[in-house]
Amino acid sequence: MEGKKHLFVGRNGETQKYTYPRKVVINSTIPKRDRSSHGANLSSQLTLAKMAEKAITEEVDSIELESHMGVQLSFESFPGIEIAFEKLADVRSGIELMSVVQRDNSFVANVLVPIGKFGTLEKKVAEYLNSDKDNKSGPKNSILLNAISSIRTTVIENLWTDSQDLFPISNEEVDWFEIWLPVSDDRIAVITDFKKLCGIHEVRVSDSTLEFPERSILLVKASLSQLASSAALLSKISEIRKSKTTAEFFDSQGIPEQRQWSEELISRVEYNTDNENTPYVSILDTGINFGHPLLSAVFNSNDAFVVDPNWDKADSDGHGTSMAGLAIWGDFNGWPCYMGGLNCCS
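The chain above was modelled as a monomer; its predicted structure follows.
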C-alpha cells in the first residue's frame, strides 16, 4: 500500500513437516502376479461386464439420443496400490476416464467404454497373457493390469466423490444431488440426452447448468436407487456429490433470519476450554467487533490493540471482523452474511 509502512513479523514460529491426517499406504512398486491366473481372472470379469452392452442397447433402443452410449466400468486396485489411471483411457476408441475415488486403502477408477469398444480392453488383457508380447519389464501392460484386482460394471457408490459422511443413509432417500457429466465430443448432446433420460425415469433435473472445461454440472432431485435403476442414465454420470446450501441462501435472508441462523449455530458449538493447548491467532486488520455473537465466546477484549491510541478498537470497515470469523469458523457457506460487517447481530 502506497504511503504505508510494512510490518515485519519476526521468525518466532517453528517449522513442522506436513503430515496427512489419515493413514494412507501406497506401494509404488507393483507386485508381480501369476500371469496365467490373474490374466484369466481379469478376462472373465471383462467378459461378464461386457454383457451390460446388451442391456443398455435394449434400454435406449426406442429412445432418440444425440450422444454415443457406453458402459461404465470400475477398475479397483489391490490394497495399497495405485492404478496407472492414464493407461485406461484411449482417445482413439473414445474410452474416457470419468472419475477416481479412494475406498479405504484401495483406488477405484471409473471408465466409460463406448458400445462396441470393449475390444480395446480385451486386447490389453490378451497381450498380457501372450508371452510373445513380453518386454524387458515382463508381460505387456503389466504395469496397468498387475495393479487391478477386479473389473465390474460401475455401481452408484463408486460414482460418489463427495465426503463419505454426506452419503445418504438410505439409497431410497430423496434429496438434491450434484451430477457431474462428461463433455465427451459434444457437451450439449450429453446434457440433452441426460435430461431426456431423467424425464423418462421421472427424475427432477434443474434447468441451469454450470460448465467447466471438462465437466457439466446439473442438480437433480432423486434417490440414489432411482438413478441406479437405469443403466443408461448411470453411464452418463462421471461424479455424484451432495448439493450444498450456498452463500446466496443466507445473503437473501433478512436481519432477523440471519440472527436466528447465528443462534442456531451457537447452540450446537462446544468450545475448547483448555487454555494451555488452545492455539491463538493474531489478526492485523481494521479492528474487530468482538460483541458479535459468533465471536464473543472466543475473543478477549484485553487482547485488542491499536497503533494510534485515538483509534477505536471496533471495526468500522467490516474486514477485520470477517477475517476473525474465518480464523475461528473456517470458510463455511454463508459466511459473508454471518460476518461480513453486519453489525446488526452485535
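Residues 165-244 form a domain with the Alpha-Beta Plaits fold (CATH 3.30.70.80).
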